[in-house]
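Human: Can I borrow your eye for a moment on a structure tokenisation matter? Separate attempts, laid side by side, tell us more than any discussion would. Could you pick a protein and write out its sequence and tokenised fold? No explanation is needed for now; the record alone will do.

Assistant:
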Amino acid sequence: MTIQALLDLVDGMYPNAESDAIKVGYMNLAQEDISPYFGLVVEDDTTLTVDEQDAYEFPTGLTDVTDIISLGIGGSDDPDDRYDYTKYTLVKVNENPMVWNSFYQVIDSSGTKKFAVYPVPATDDYPIVIRFKKALTALSTTVFTGSPEFNSNYHSMLAYYCAYMLAFTTSDDDKANGFMAMYDARLTDIWRKAMDDEIDNPTYNRDNDQWHSNSRFVAGY
């Protein structure tokens, strides 16, 4: 569905006088909610190590370390192949971040999220390769010919959420609850499908660090 078609659907479900820009803004809030299920898997190698620096900016499209599927640092400034990388594992900073070859999330003084690696790099310009689920691109609030970049079977969810917000902000509680129930039902479908897919095609294979002692590797590179 195009953005205009979604706006028409919203107006048909819940007639209102709100601006189109505000309504698309509500749809973008819903997109943020469902992005972890539909985000495209991308690989970024634009980040380079800096001597004695542990924290780095997220690449474009990455919003949280939990969206990282794999992270590896090259063994040189020009790695020979995918085996010339050291794999890093996600850990929780408030539990035990100082685990060999690990990465975790930090927030700087301005409130910006970053990823940090341990041990701290001791050289410059070694590539950090990150495979992650890229956040869905926000819908335009001025041009309505485009479409959401996820499965069209679920586009109507954005209209449900938008209608919910319109009803909620006018204290039309019965209608708001009804639209949210419609949205939650579809979200539950997505969650169940994601769980089934994870069982059939696990994101993380069973592994043991001792199997790879004294070796460099990044799964899937």
Summary: The chain is about 35% helix and 20% strand.
